[in-house]
Write a structure and sequence with these properties.
The chain is α+β, with helices and mostly antiparallel strands and 345 residues long. The chain has eight helices and 16 strands. Strands 6, 7, 8, 9, 10, 13, 14, 15 and 16 form a nine-stranded mixed β-sheet that branches. The protein has a five-stranded mixed β-sheet with strand order 1-2-5-3-4. Strands 11-12 form a two-stranded antiparallel ribbon. The protein starts with a strand and ends in a 5-residue tail after the last helix.
Amino acid sequence: MKRKYTVGPESDGLARPSESLLAAASEDLADPPTEEAIERRESTVAPGLHGSRLDKAVVAMAGEFSRNHLQSLIEAGHVWLEGVCQSSPSRKVQAGQRIAVDLIPTQECRAFRPEEMALSVVFEDADVIVIDKPAGLVVHPAPGNWSGTLLNGLLAHHASAASLPRAGIVHRLDKDTSGLMVVGKTLVAVTALTRQIAARDVHRIYLAVCHGHFEHPTLRIAAPIGRDPRSRVRMAVLPAGGREARTDVERLAVRDDIADGALSAVRCTLHTGRTHQIRVHMASVGYPLLADLTYGGRVACGLNRQALHATRLGFDHPVSGRPMAFEAPPPADFAAVWQLLWDTR
């Protein structure tokens, strides 16, 4: 599809806040879109942009994209000046010159597409879906995981997901955490579920295995959590600047005679829903989760992902108001370690 414009000086050349600033040329262009997804735009440089950089002129004709993304298009050879392919965003342009650009959508934009996948549906009606998410499944597209996510599966599962924020996803589980999630199927349901989560009326209980002999029969961990200032991929307990976070931990079983070291089985009840909350809280009191390499855990007992499973989920139905409660047993890899803690041999 072609559109013709006259590029004017009114554009400020800045990235639009709605565009992701994480897109780099190596990511945006690594998975070429179909030809139908590419839009060709053509224009001429207006007098007010005489002597400007090429990327500024391209931003003026495609301001819905970030400057970073448009620069990546230039560097990848998708922009032509007077019919000659360009590769330098800093190239100066002259009034009256013709510019053509193939507008390739960002990876983030292309991520929101349906992909058929087998979803483990525990419950479904016209308003909600309760899913038992397997370990290894990413919930929402992000850099490094632009496809194969739960969101992609939801878009293929029911047509109305395409009209909902995040395809109806109202809370998340980490990639390597297994267990129960609720997803809204209508905007009314998404709104109601979001309000329940904000009001802490959605009840979530997890099973976990941690390193060490957990010495407390019960323990309430109330410690604010925020982004780790030393590593952007981690969260941390931050007494100043973190967000309120509270986890109740109950010891269920302990074994001190395992070759890989003492292990404890615990039940964790979330009262808030911060990113990595249980993993951060358990590590902060000296009991990192088994195989949670990010927060000090070690691979052991054949488990190579963090030993965390969302086993119970409770909420009020977003339309009828009826109390709903679900339970999912751990998958085989987790269950094998869990059973080991009750083995008295």
